[in-house]
Design goal:
Elements: H1 2-22, H2 29-34, H3 41-52, H4 56-68, H5 71-102, H6 107-115, H7 119-150, H8 168-218, H9 223-237, H10 248-254, H11 265-272, H12 281-305, E1 309-310, E2 313-314, H13 326-334, H14 337-375, H15 383-405, H16 412-435, H17 441-462, H18 479-497, H19 503-510
Antiparallel strand pairs: 1-2
Helix pairs in contact: 1-8, 1-14, 3-8, 3-11, 3-12, 3-14, 4-12, 4-16, 5-11, 5-12, 6-7, 7-8, 7-13, 7-14, 7-15, 7-16, 7-17, 8-9, 8-12, 8-14, 8-15, 11-14, 13-14, 14-15, 16-17, 16-18, 17-18
Amino acid sequence: MTQLAIIIGYLLLLLGLGAAASKFSRGTSRDYLLASHSIGPVLLLMSLFGTTMTAFALVGSTGKSFQLGVGVYGLMASSSGIVHSLCFFLIGVKLWKLGQRHGYTTQVQFFRDRLGSHRFGYLLFPVLVGLVIPYLLIGVLGAGAVVNGVTRGAFAEAFANSGHGVPPWLGSLVICLVVLVYVFAGGMRGTAWANTFQTAVFMVLGVVTFVVIAREIGGGESFLESLRGATSRVLEAHPEKLVMKPPKLFFFSFLLIPLSAGMFPHLFQHWLTARSASTFKLPVIVHPLFILIVWVPCVMVGVWATSAMVGGELVFDEPPKNVNTVLPILLGKVAGPVLSGLLSAGILAAVMSSLDSQFLCLGTMFTNDIVLCRRGDAAETDDRRVVRMARLFIVAIVGVTYLLSLGEPAGIFDLGLWCFAGFTGLVPLVLAALYWRRLTLPGAVASVLAMVVTWLTLFLWDMGGYPPDPKYKFLGMLPVATVLAVSTIALVAVSLMTLPPSDEVLAKFFNPGSGRDETMSDAPGLPD
């Protein structure tokens, strides 16, 4: 019960943080949704990193490395840091400048203006929401798995079907409610504060987790001896986990997954909160280092778990049915009640630091892209009403996601690959909108439709549907390669076959001097 008490205490602390952030609110919808563009370099770094480090990175990577071995780091993390920073630099800074210049709050507003079509927003909005739902599902499943894994055996008689621990459905429900409360109370400012706090928590406790598990499994007098001991046991029992030689095309297709960050709606909203363009410098430089600090321990712990022994007995006699529980179960076995409770709180911090941004982003998109757009005059809408509508839509989407989580659990890593494949398929659209003058409305429509049709075809027909088939290959590659290729070809081909955009649109988005203001003058070397 100690672990459960610590987790509850941590959740109460987060609620207090949200309440404190609400005291600084300016009472406007813009402050609630964008924190009045007041976020500095450190908060932006922690917000962006905390948002991208989901249950996919912590819970999912550990479970997948338990299955496949150390090569999981090479497949995902080796490229994620660099590609994410490139997205911040090439896409984030440009979109921030355009957002400052033209007052954008969401991606859909930008694309409507760039393509000269309000109807395009009604196509893009449901696609983005549809892709965010499985992204939310990753976090909800991860939260339930963590709470269940670390509290197993806490109840003598109750919850026998869940190992006498908190059932995943209950853990997921509580985490969703807590995140909803502090997002509702603090808005974007509360989310940024919580992200910063939780990112610091899970990075510090993540390193502590790595050290504790290494010492308990490796058994050495020093940390380095423990590392060698833990790895030598894997070498004896499962040497295949320390070597991975994936086919070249398969490995290449993994490099495309991190591109998805360029079209995450919640990242777009975080980019807009920046105080100035120079605020992006710290995230661009430091983000890859943070990726390394988080991913290396998670992958190594998953590999060690395959042969880990505590008290002379294997921690896992056989692979668990739900690989999402590998990390929390291992924690419960090797760490004491207090330490395992603290470390589990750190894992939950990573999960919630992405859920909160996604929750708030969904509300922003709904109010700005659907409600206010349909009314035609946002100025006449009361700010309190805007915030209330945002909250209602958030609750509806979270409810749908939670209901989906009650079904057959999917592997978080596999589900993440499918979710990110869809976002990657939209990256050609944002790159063309920012850098290619010849992009046309029909080309953009063709690209989005091509992505949706290809994604659904591969997911529902060829790959076996939900939960995703862990073999997930098409033409020797991940589906993301096919989705990206088809959407790119459709965009370029249709754009070239249709009339180019008007000179007015080109002047608005490609004239370096148009609308420049003093807030942009402090970013030498950043792209215009």
